[in-house]
User: What shape does this take?
Amino acid sequence: MRFFFYGTLLDRDVAALVLGRRLPPGAFVPAVLPGHARWQVKGGTYPIAVRDPCREVEGAVVSGLSARDVARLAAYEGPGYRISLLKVRVAGSLIAASMFEPLMTRLQPTRRLWHLAVWQRRDKRLYIARIRRSISAHPAYSTQ
Assistant: This one.
């Protein structure tokens, strides 16, 4: 399966914790999601991608994900998202990729654009600690 990552999963340490394995270096292929903006979510340090015809979101397409990987990603993302099939631009061509799209009835954007490097500097350390606690307590992660 092929997914577009646009937020905290772009961080290789976060992706490794969530998936329970480190992806090979070439697994993250740079991609752009047209017609969307990446805003920080209200009440959190992570982003959501919101439709916006004037913007685009940089991220990465990750291919070769197994059903187990997708189940772990779904547990990580939680009930505030649905899996949607969208078109992303990779090396000048549009391709289909799945994405965890926020449910606007559950998640609201702030008006602060989200940047991976800023998040890594300010929030990553505490975020990783929260993920570790969540994974150890969550049944979806207990079966490898």
